[in-house]
Specification:
The chain has about 500 residues and is mainly α. The protein has one domain (about 5-490). The chain contains 19 helices and two strands. The longest helix is centred in the middle third of the chain and has 32 residues, at about 150-180. The N and C termini lie close together (about 10 Å).
């Protein structure tokens, strides 16, 4: 259990060290940033299959603050830190286009600290603190280039992020006033004994609005297309790949299932929000010609699949939702890195201006094709398996209309990414792109790592991987308020 604080202490410490010692050593931010994220990958893999509670300072509950590691938090930690490592590796060459790498890595590691803290904390107020650390760092990173569009997107993201945080903080205050505790397990235990009252229902509504904004679910999605398309490519990969999952979807799952306990009303709300996001997101994406903006709208759609699966509340639905969460983190991060590579080589994000780039950028083109097939749900790539499970879960739960809408959204996603492949990579090479070449080696390596995961992540469904990685996460969600007994008993 002594490993648990390292997920927070390590990136936080390096985030403060980098600005202090890196001014005279130009390469040091790259080295420290990548060593930190690589170490976190190894640490997160080392805790697979582990469960436990860490008492900060040795203080026991309710006086002390605790961190909880279980199947769900392990799944999130692995996902967050793998995508973070790919993003920092990609950043070594890509971020040369920007001003200050030491500030970039410092903000990046602060954002990573916040995300790791959110998935480990067992205390609602500390969840809010870590959420704010990640959010504030991400606001700065979105506007890191300091151009007009980037600053406008960062400001919009900041304003709506503050609104979301206000809802969440107000909800926490209502819960504390009603229950008298901020510890998640104790709150869950009290709710199980007393039942839900009007104050707690109000808090649940505030959480759905606040975390729904963080997850960019429809109708709370307005900030995402600008923020994700304006940020530097590795930050877009982090925002779409893991940030909205950690600050939005993970927190919704933890609060709805492990604190309040799922009910028919909450299940219906989640299914409605998931379906609306899934359909509206893909429809908005179809008309986009800005490469990164198209990807941003698809993030809304794919998050809808996750929430739909989680909202079903069945073992198969939860499995599909969680599996699609980690699959989407990988293939969407890869797609944003692909878009960044194209922009790095050509200087544009407009797909009508491109064409035939596969001749000059074979690694980017190949990895983009793999990611496009993954997000569209084409076998044998990872997106196919999780979408298939969600569709089967909808049919099993007696919602054939939702299954049909999921199929239609997947077909429209395929059409959208056929457009991407046609206009960006496949058509005749335009004369003005004759002199471009493939992006630097480390950017290619980052894309190849994620593309290999897209090909082989379906193997997580085989019994050995299933029992050690996916199934423990599913069981944490299914146990509902049993979370309290498990945490308080350790």
């Amino acid at each position: 259990m002594n490993i648990i604080p390292l997920f927070i202490v390590l990136p936080l410490t390096v985030a403060f060290i980098i600005p202090m010692i890196s001014r005279k050593f130009i390469k040091l931010p790259d080295v420290l940033g990548n060593l930190t994220t690589l170490t976190l990958v190894f640490l997160s893999v080392s805790v697979i299959g582990k469960t436990g509670v860490y008492m900060i300072g040795g203080w026991k509950m309710p006086l002390g603050i605790n961190m909880v590691i279980d199947g769900l938090s392990v799944l999130m930690l692995v996902t967050i830190n793998v995508v973070a490592f790919a993003s920092t590796l990609y950043s070594v060459d890509y971020m040369k286009m920007y001003t200050s790498k030491l500030r970039y890595y410092s903000l990046f590691l602060l954002m990573l600290t916040g995300m790791n803290g959110v998935v480990l904390t067992g205390d609602l107020f500390n969840l809010y603190v870590f959420l704010e650390i990640a959010s504030i760092a991400s606001y700065a990173l979105v506007g890191f280039g300091c151009e007009y569009d980037e600053l406008e997107a960062a400001f919009k993201y900041l304003v709506l992020g503050i609104v979301a945080s206000s809802f969440i903080l107000f909800g926490i205050a209502v819960i504390y006033g009603s229950v008298g505790s901020l510890n998640m397990a104790q709150i869950s235990e009290v709710i199980k004994q007393r039942g839900m009252n009007n104050a707690l229902l109000f808090a649940a509504a505030l959480f759905l609005m606040g975390f729904g904004l963080k997850a960019a679910l429809v109708p709370f999605h307005a900030w995402l297309p600008d923020a994700h398309s304006s940020a530097p490519a590795p930050i877009s990969a982090m925002l779409s790949g893991v940030l909205i999952k950690t600050l939005g979807i993970y927190t919704i799952i933890r609060v709805v299932y492990n604190i309040f306990g799922i009910s028919e009303r909450l299940s219906l709300i989640l299914m409605i929000m998931g379906t609306l996001s899934m359909v509206i997101g893909v429809l908005l994406a179809l008309g986009q010609w800005d490469f990164k903006r198209l990807l941003a709208y698809h993030s809304i759609s794919q998050v809808g699949y996750v929430i739909l699966g989680i909202g079903l509340g069945t073992p198969l639905g939860i499995l599909g939702g969680l599996f699609h969460l980690i699959n989407h983190s990988v293939f969407k991060a890869l797609l944003f890195l692909n878009a960044g590579s194209v922009e790095y080589a050509t200087g544009t994000r407009q797909m009508e201006e491109m064409g035939g780039l596969s001749e000059k950028m074979p690694v980017t083109a190949t990895t983009s094709l793999i990611a496009s097939m993954s997000i569209a749900g084409i076998p044998p790539f990872n997106g196919f398996w999780s979408k298939l499970i969600i569709i089967a879960a909808c049919i099993q739960a007696g919602h054939p209309v939702l299954a049909l809408l999921a199929v239609i959204a997947s077909i429209l996603t395929l059409a959208s990414f056929m457009k991407v492949q046609k206009y960006v990579f496949f058509e005749k090479l335009k004369e003005k792109w004759n002199d471009i070449r493939e992006v630097p080696l480390l950017m290619c390596v980052a894309m190849v790592i994620l593309s290999v995961l897209c090909v082989f992540m379906g193997l997580l469904l085989i019994p050995a991987a299933w029992n050690s990685f996916l199934n423990p996460a599913v069981q944490v969600v299914l146990e509902g308020t049993g979370y309290a007994l498990r945490v308080l008993g350790q």
